[in-house]
Each structure stands twice: as structure tokens, then as C-alpha cells.
Amino acid sequence: MEKQATRDAYGKALVELGKKYNDVVVLDADLSKSTKTSDFAKEFPERFINAGIAEQNMIGMAAGLAAAGKKVFASSFAVFAAGRAFEQVRNSVAYARLNVKICASHAGITVGEDGGSHQAVEDIAVMRAVPNMTVVVPADGVSTKKAVFAVYEHEGPVYMRLGRPAVPLIYDERLDFKIGKGIELRSGKDVTLIACGIMVGKALEAAELLAKEGIEASVIDMHTIKPLDEELIIRKAEETGAILTLEEHSIIGGLGGAVCEVVSEKCPVLVKRMGIKDLFGQSGKPDELMEYYGLTVGHIMNNVHNLLEIKP
Amino acid sequence: MREINLETVRIVEGKAKVLREDILKMLAEAGSGHTGGSLSSADIVACLYFWEMSIDPNNPHDENRDRFVLSKGHAAPVLYAALAEKGFFPREKLKTLRRLGSPLQGHPDMRKLPGVEASTGSLGQGISWAVGMALAGKIDKKDYRVYSLLGDGELQEGMVWEAFMAAAHYKLDNLTAFVDHNRLQIDGKITEVMSPEPVADKFRAFGWEVIIIDGHNVEEIMRALNKAREIKGRPTVIIAETVKGKGVSFMENRAEWHGTAPKKDDLEKALAELL
Ligand SMILES: Cc1ncc(C[n+]2csc(CCOP(=O)(O)OP(=O)(O)O)c2C)c(N)n1
Ligand SMILES: [Mg+2]
What is the CATH number of the domain that holds A83? Predict the structure, then answer.
């Protein structure tokens, strides 16, 4: 299976975007080789600004650039973009509803060896809580590229979450990516797997295996965490009566939390949240960490089995 | 005041060499990590751990101990090498760097490894931590000293200047900061990415005592540390002119070696050069 890291796809898409639109400006904070904004920097040096190791100033400058009419893409690791610069994101970018697209790479535990200080497990939760903010978590390279263009067209602030490791390609170029519209990749009546990012591919793998056991699982790529596709969630809740959410993020406040907010108010059904259980990450190989924190295909299978046992 | 003589200098130089060997070996074993900035700090860290600081590996939480905060936390290997050599943990553990379950995390974690004084890795935060420790020393009227090591790229973070302002404001003469002035960060030369220069003038304007030295000359590092002990009423910064990747010709002054670990071949060549 062909693989690509979402950060790699982001870097390439930015170059295409820059060719198409003159108002695109890209910012980074001394991590351009890792976030892949270096591709854009090479192609359009006059529209690339390296803030140095100064994430707060980077986001502040991004706000100013956007207020002056630019479409700004600002990148760093998720810990620093959503964490270090949080209040600049909140007050300078979101409160002022500016066209700043915060594209944060190295999110989640698959950062690997750098360890817990560098693994954002709470960025979706904090970004989602900010009014005016749109939150996008693409699952593969193709959807990342489409998302970059959609995010450009979208009016207002966006937080896009990208990953470090190469992940299997799920889509081809025919993908119709719309912010706020979840994608039903597979339909089954027994249970719905709602996933984002790296977990979408794993949910699909698990669904194949479940089918062999006679369990029919629906799989949703919920690439937009906010605004959330409530209609789709309610429909799937009604159709299947059980939901498993999957994210490479804390089970507190992320995709799982968002889905629970919707179903508990509008269509109460069983929901099990798969994610990192209120813990920090640590050093290790990405695959080892996915195993350690319970985010493998095997864990998905177990969770589905448990869920179906208690499903009324 | 610590004694500077041929013997003490020779001992620390020997320790710096051990640290460099261990840095290279553990990084090669881990297969990832930060080589350049660990090597550039080795002489400074050797002086602190094997000459300057009062610390006891058998009593790592002694409340009167001196404290070292590695603000440039990515240089964790140099800290781990020093702690192992000092006897805080068996040298064998160095091989577990960056492995799942190891106390030797990619960036220092004070909850996992005794001797690590601060959990750092997010640049800029360690120096504030050091200011806090120095403040505590003043409140408690203790005479321990606090040391911190910053990268020169790290100086781009706004919060370090907030910390420098606070340290001068509170007259923290028990605090000594080092700047590892190796002139490189990840994306290239600090002066090309986002210049923090002139660094010395900025510190002076912030009310600090400034000492500029060759950061690979052990005797100069020692003299600077002794001088810092005599300065009263303000903190001291030692701006150490260094070479990123120091000691291994093919790593020296090369930004590519910032976050790259040596492969097996590189390791053999590199170790041969250290002799
Ligand atoms: C807040 C924050 N932003 C970004 C990074 C990623 N990062 C790790 S090391 C580094 C460059 C550091 O350069 P410098 O301070 O000069 O260190 P040295 O050259 O001594 O290795 C960067 C940007 C980080 N660790 N923390
Ligand atoms: Mg440097």
C-alpha cells in the first residue's frame, strides 16, 4: 500500500497553492524541514517568513499579515502552535476572526522518540473550544492536499492537525473534500466507527476483519472536528445504535468528546471513546507507542466486541 | 571559589572527552536525537558536574544542592552522560536512550530520572524555571547556586527575555546562565533565521553581568564560574563561543547534525577522532 505522511502532502500542496494564489504567505518557527514548509520557502522565498524559535510572535505576525489581506499558513509542531501560542491564537486570530490557518505537524504520540514534551495529545480539545475556530484532521496525503485548498477557500481561522509518520493512502484524486462533511467510507448496521487522522486507516482495516466475523461496521472519516457533521452522527447513531470513536489524542475533549456531546443531547446511544487515556506520551517507536496506548487494529476489534456485548 | 590548576583542568578535560564518547555512542544506539548541540555543550557541562557544582548522586534531593537546568532540553544526551559519569545511575542505562519505558526520555523528564532538575524540551521554559529556583534559594536564605544552559537560537523565544528581566529585577546573584553560542539552529545560521545579536549588549542592557569566553577552553570556563561567584547584586551570563558538533570534524559547524544521530560508520570515524 502506498504511504505518505500528511505533513509531506501539506508541504507539496502549499507549493501548488502558492502557484495558484498570490496572497498566500507561509510562516514557520525554525522547523520548516520538519513541517515541510521548506518546500514553499524554496519556491517562494519572498512569501515565506521564518519567525525563528518564537511561536507566539509567529502567530501574532500571522494575525497582522491576515489583517492586511494575506491568507496566512503558519506551521510548527502541534505542541508549540496550539500550546505555546494558545492565547495569541485565541485573542489575535480567533477573536478577530482572521484568515490564519494554523497547520500543526507532529501531533499525537507518533512523534515517537522525542517523547512526551513534544507529543500534543490535547490540541484538538483546546483548539475546538475556541469560538470561530474550525478544526480539521486529515487522514491521508490525498485528503490533506484537498484540505489545504478547502482551508484556503474557507473564510476565517482554521487549525489543521498533521502527523509525522507515513500513513497509507485511503483516497484518490476523485475525493470530494468538504469542510464540515464527514465521509462514510463503509456502511454496516452493527456499529459505527468514527475516526479522524491516522485512526481512519486503522478503522478500515478493523472493519475488514470484523466483516469476516460477520460484524458489519460503518466507518466514518470525521476529518472536520468543528463544525462537526451532526446530521451524519445522528443518522449513524440511529442506524447502528453503537459508536466507537477513534483518535490519536486524549479521550478528553477531542473527537470522542465532541461526538458524545452530540449524541447525548440528540440521540443517546452507547459510545466508547478510543484514544489516549488522560496520560502524557513518552519516548518510543511510533508503533510501540500505538500499542502501549491501546490504538492498534487489535484494540479496535476488542473494543467493538465489548461494545456489541453491552449494546441493548 | 574552586581551585584552578593543571590537575583540575586536566581532570575536567578528561571528563569532557568521556561525555563526548558517551553522547555519540548513546545517540548511535538510539538511532535518533540531537548530536550537534550536545557536543557543543560538553565542556561546559563537564565543568559544572565535575568541578563546580555541589551535588551528591547518593542524595539527589538534598535541599542544599546546587541545581542545573538544561534549558536547551534537546541536548539531553550531554546531561545523561554527565549524570551517569557522576554516578546517578549505571552507565548501562545510557543504551536505553529514547526507548519505550526508559528513564532517559528524548527530552529530560524529572519524574523519571533522579538528578534531572527540570523537565525541559520546550525551548525558553528552562531559564524561567532556573529563575524560580534561584528565587526559592533567596527566600529560604540558602546558599546553593543555580545554573542554566540556553541555546543561542533559544534566545529568540520571548519568554527568555522575561526571565532575564526578572532575574535582574530580583538581583539573583545566585544564578549563572550559559549561552551555548554555536551560531546555528535547525533552519540554518541564527543570524540568517532570526538574529538575536548583539547578544552581549542585550544582556548588559537587561542588567546582567556578562562574561564572554571560549566555550571549549576548560580553564576559561572555570575562571568565568569563579568570577560569577564574586558578582553580587545581579545575575551573570557566560556567553560561551562554541562550535556545534565540536570534536568531530565532519559534524562541526553543520546544521544537518542538529537532529541527526550518527550511523554505525559515522560512530567509528567520530570516536577515532576524539582520541
Ligand atoms: C518552544 C520550542 N520550539 C521549537 C522547538 C524545536 N527545536 C528543538 S531544538 C531547536 C533549535 C535550537 O537551536 P539552539 O537553541 O541554537 O540550540 P543548539 O544549537 O545549541 O542545539 C528547535 C527549533 C522546541 N524544542 N521548543
Ligand atoms: Mg545554536
Answer: 3.40.50.970
Instruction: Write the residue in A31, A79, A284 that is nearest to B99 by C-beta.
Output: A284
Interface contact B187-A284, CB threshold 8 A: no
**B180 CA to centre of ligand 2 in angstroms:** 7
pLDDT digits (tens, 9 = 90+) for A94-151: 999 999 999 999 999 999 999 999 999 999 999 999 999 999 999 999 999 999 999 9
> What totals of helices (H) and strands (E) does chain A contain, helices first?
13, 14
| Residue spans per domain, chain B | 6-274
- Choosing from A28, A30, A88, A106 the residue with most ligand 1 atoms within 8 A of its CB, the one to mutate for a pocket test is A30
What is the enclosing helix (H) or strand (E) of A84?
none
Collect all residues of chain B within an 8 Å Cβ-Cβ radius of residue A118: 106-107, 121
Q: What is the pLDDT of residues A26-72, one digit of tens each?
A: 999 999 999 999 999 999 999 999 999 999 999 999 999 999 999 99
Query: What pTM was estimated for this model as a whole?
Result: 0.97
Give the C-alpha separation, B80 to B85, whole Å.
Answer: 8
* Residue A198 and residue A67 in one domain: no
Contact A149, A14 (CB under 8 A): no
Q: Which residue segment(s) compose the domain that A257 sits in?
A: 183-310
Query: Measured from the CA of B152, which atom of ligand 1 is nearest?
Result: 16
> B143-159 in b/e burial notation, b at 16+ Cβ within 10 A?
ebbbbbbbbbbbbbbeb
Here the CATH number for the domain that contains residue A265 is: 3.40.50.920
- Strand-pair partners of B209: B236
List the alpha helices (DSSP H) in B140-238.
158-169, 190-193, 199-205, 218-230
Q: Is the minimum CB–CB distance between B99 and chain A shorter than 8 Å?
A: yes
Q: Give me the residue label for grid cell 476529518.
A: A223
Task: For domain B6-274, give the CATH superfamily.
Answer: Thiamin diphosphate (ThDP)-binding fold, Pyr/PP domains (3.40.50.970)
